[in-house]
């Protein structure tokens, strides 16, 4: 970024406070065909002044500053620009403005991302400085450089718009995954709870001995001692049920 030319840093808040290097003499921008006066006078805007004006305009982006630099009025410059034979000067003028605008845009992006040097003041004393990012400027630049994503167009996205459809497809996939996960969780808890109940009945039978009746259930898996086990099949629900059952055994819910 170009450095401020103001003596006091806090004054460097306008485009006037920043300038870029002027184009070199061999820059294509200065290779235009200038207006040639048929009978030049002492105050005529000569080809050399026209090139100096264009060079300053490219560096500053401000017509008034460029006019002042060559000592000519805005009225005289605009009159010259409109004269037949000044087409080359007019085109160079426009190109210089575009270059100046591009420089200002780059400067704005740099300020938005890297921040502006800002003093840290306490008790009327400057304790230091920090680079303060400009989020409002960043949002403005994003809205204009990427309007489809951050500008007014993005706020008008609706059904049928590619962005809308892409987001909708992602949402549907996420909802389907959530539903599948919930279904697996419900199945796992049902399996774990059923096995836990069977184990509770089994413990009651063990304590009752011969007086206990038989245990009948939808799951008949048992170990060698007759202790109820989880179903024999291996899937996500049973694997999850194994964890839940261990938690129930460690801290019985009832």
Name some characteristics of this structure.
single chain, 254 residues, mainly alpha, 3 domains, two-stranded antiparallel sheet, 2 strands, 6% strand
Mean pLDDT: 78
Gross morphology is rod-shaped
Biggest sheet descriptor: 2 strands, antiparallel
What's the SSE pattern? HHHHEEHHHHH
Structural class determined from secondary elements: mainly alpha
Beta percentage is 5-15%
Question: Mind telling me the C-alpha Rg?
Answer: 40 Å
Helix share, percent: 55-70%
Give the number of domains. Answer: 3
Q: Strand sequence of the main sheet, in spatial order?
A: 1-2
Unreliable segments of 5+ consecutive residues: 1-17
Distance, first to last CA: 71 Å
- By DSSP, the count of extended strands is 2
Number of helices: 9
How would you summarize what this structure contains?
By secondary structure, this protein is mostly helical. The chain is built from nine helices and two strands. The protein has helices at 47-60, 63-70, 74-82, 87-114, 135-145, 147-150, 152-155, 162-208, 236-250; strands at 116-122, 125-132.
Structural account:
- Helix 1 packs antiparallel against helix 2, helix 1 packs parallel to helix 4 and helix 4 crosses helix 5.
- It is rod-shaped and about 130 Å long.
- The N terminus is likely disordered.
- By secondary structure, it is mainly α.
- The protein folds into 3 domains: 100 residues, no CATH class; 42 residues, no CATH class; 88 residues.
